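Because discrete structure vocabularies remain unfamiliar, we first show an illustrative case, written as a sequence plus integers encoding its fold.
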Amino acid sequence: MNRISDTELKGKESEKARRERELQKLEMNKADLARKREARRRKHDKVGEANWEHRIRANENRTDEVKARIRALAAFIEKTRRQTEADIEKMRHGYQWLIDQEMRKITDIEAQRDEAVGIRQREIEALKLVARKIGEEIGELGIRKREEAEELRRLSVTQEFDDVTPLCLPFYLAGYQTENKTRFQIFPPVKVLSSEGVMATIRKKLGDFRAASRASLFLQTRSKSMNRMLNLVEEKMESDKAFSGVLIEAAVSSNIMLKDGFKETLSKGVAELKAEGWITSKEEDFVKAYT
């Protein structure tokens, strides 16, 4: 196969792969278009129904065109490959004597290689002896290091704690107040999962879920034990008013809603969520109405 036909074949294979991806998208869109048409039909929206019907037909026409192009590309690729295989077989039979000549050269090279390998193996054995010696010295250094560490521990002053004491446990405390009742909810630390690849595709299909349900799919609990502990804190706030008052006082002093620039930061974050399809325009307006 010459350079021109090789380049052309690669171009056709790339086009075929591109068309197949396009066909997959068209077939996926077909069901979505049908669903939207039925929605317009249920609402007796003749204009809307006709619009989606037109789009469905355009999708089907494009699908037929792509399928035809894929078949043509597949036939061209198969024909080219068969021709290539025939050329290769012709060359194999026509130049067998060249192959035999090169095989004799290979035999000579293998002999030289075996000799060089023998020399290299002897060098490797010598290096192994050196490495073994170095390993023994490293072992001795490790023993000396442990002895010195033990000596340092013997000379140090031991500090012991009677109980395990957490130094810092970040969490959010949210309060919901009506005319007759106040309820509190603690949000423990979570880890946000990546939305790349497959998750990005799933995210686009979650339009019918509430914002909280969509967000929960990408939030992973950092510690189940920590969650259980914070649940106990919520229960204690319900039963122990003094404890609840102390915790609320501490939370008020760190209220993020009173921090400078919080409104701007929140508005920017909500706009980014809207731009990426996490929330709807209605949900964005709802958040802005309360800020």
User: Anything to note?
Assistant: The chain is about 75% helix and 5% strand.
